[in-house]
Every structure is written in C-alpha cells, then in structure tokens.
Write a structure and sequence with these properties.
By secondary structure, the chain is an alpha+beta fold. The chain has one domain (5-161): 3-Layer(aba) Sandwich (Aminopeptidase). It has helices spanning 15-28, 37-40, 45-54, 98-112, 127-135; strands at 5-9, 57-62, 65-73, 81-89, 117-123, 139-146, 154-161. Strands 1-2-3-4-5-7-6 form a 7-stranded mixed beta sheet, with helices on both faces. A hairpin with a 7-residue loop joins strand 3 and strand 4 (81-89). Helix 1 (15-28) packs across helix 3. The two termini are 12 Å apart.
Amino acid sequence: MTAGIEIRRAWDDDFAELRRIRLEALLDEPDAYGMTYAEAITLRDEQWRQIASGWNYFLAFSGERAVGMASGGRYVPMPDARWLYGMFVTPAWRGTDVAHGLVRSVAEWARLEGVDKLGLHVTASIPRARAFYAKLGFEPTGDSEPMRRDPSLELLMLVTSLSINDRI
C-alpha cells in the first residue's frame, strides 16, 4: 500500500469528502460515470450522507482528504458476482498503489459476500481505465451495453475470478 494512505469504508460522516471526490471524478472523466456533474451538484447534504452510508463506498485518504473512491455492489444480471462501481483516483495520486488498494478493498468485500467473481463495466472510450483493469486480471466477457444516461457511450463488461486472480 502507498505510504500515508488509509483506505476504509465510507460512513455518513464522510459525506463531504465523498461529495468532493465524486464531483472531481465527474469533471475529470465525465464519460466514465452513470451520473453527470450537473445531476450530482444538485444533491443535498442529506442525500450525500445517505450515499456515503448506504452505497458501500470505500475512500482512500491522505490525511483528512479523500484521494480516491470505489464502490462495491450487486449487479442483477450476475447474482453470483459482485460489481465494482465508481472507481476514481485524483490525478496527483495516479501511478501509486491507491487504485489497486481500492480494487483490493472491494474484492475483499466481495469475498466476504461469499462470491468468487468481481465484475465491472468500463467505458470503451477510456483506454487508460481498460488497461488498468487488464493489468489486475479483469478479462472482457465479450458483452457490452450502452450507458443508460448516454447510449452513445459503450460499456464493456469485464470480470475476474477472485479465487485464481493473485493480482488483486
């Protein structure tokens, strides 16, 4: 793990840092997320508290400042897997172990959920993200779908087996 970084589950008290890092993510790479900056900026503090406490977010902190985020959840079409959502690392921390640590945290949660597979959707037009996930052992399933909020964006489905993947 990168020195000086703590990765932990977000709670309602973390709502302000989750909001800040999420808004940064939406500005940095808007095509990567199902929500837009314009939608997210209108959410009230209470809504952010609910997201922080109820959406299974993991935050990477450098001191009191969040420098990365990722969420774990279910994906209805694949009930035997858990899904990685909302992955982001602030540009100054890219190239460190922060992103890997966030994926590892979601993978550990998935294992505790009793599943062997971790999947995700990645926007086809973001090669940096696709290369990162490939480096961690995520493989394309061959399935894709349009993003709900913008059907012109293609989401590729990637999956890894947690029992045989020693890169996470």
